Amino acid sequence: MLLRQLLTASILSTSIAGCASAPPAGSAPQPQTDRTVSGYPTIKRWTATLNPTQSYNAAAVASQRQNAYGKVELTVQPATPTLTDVTLVVTVPPQPGLDIVGWGLSQGRCGSGNPAVLPPSAFQPIQLSSNGRGNVDAKIPFVIETGAYHVNVFRGSGTQLSDIITCGDLRRDS
């Protein structure tokens, strides 16, 4: 008899526990807002190789190929989504009087002649070493959304199409 009572009590307690943890029939799934979803913010990155350009002037002479080259990387970090980190490295053949070059970010492709997306003062000048190499690490208050963009490097403090010594079309890496 004792065995029968223990067996009955065990079956009853298992049935009650099973009913208590089962969801009611016909219950709706939890709304999406109640679920925990973890995602990792992504870093947005654009890169370009700076290639030599043809120099232009108003005189009727043949254009000259510049020998400047380099690399540029633009990165938007999730922690600072309104700023773009810019790392630009450029090498220019040493020339007397050329110790600073300017740069700018413009819409369109290289050679388009579009103005920079920010005023020239937003782009920190690049100091060239005696071997013609220079770099800049800067933050600019601009974020690329969609479309084509390019980076120009200008002779001295120039900002005109005729002042461009190297240019690179940006492409999205991540």
Q: Work out the strand percent.
A: 35-45%
- Overall form: globular
Q: Low-confidence stretches at least 5 residues in length (pLDDT < 50)?
A: 33-38, 56-64
- What is the CATH topology classification name? Immunoglobulin-like
Q: If you had to describe this structure to a student in words, what would you say it looks like?
A:
- This protein is mostly beta strands.
- 11% of the residues lie in helices and 36% in strands.
- The strands form two sheets. Strands 1, 4, 5, 6, 7, 8, 9, 10 and 11 form a nine-stranded antiparallel β-sheet that branches.
- Strand 4 and strand 5 (84-91) form a beta hairpin.
- It is globular and about 45 Å long.
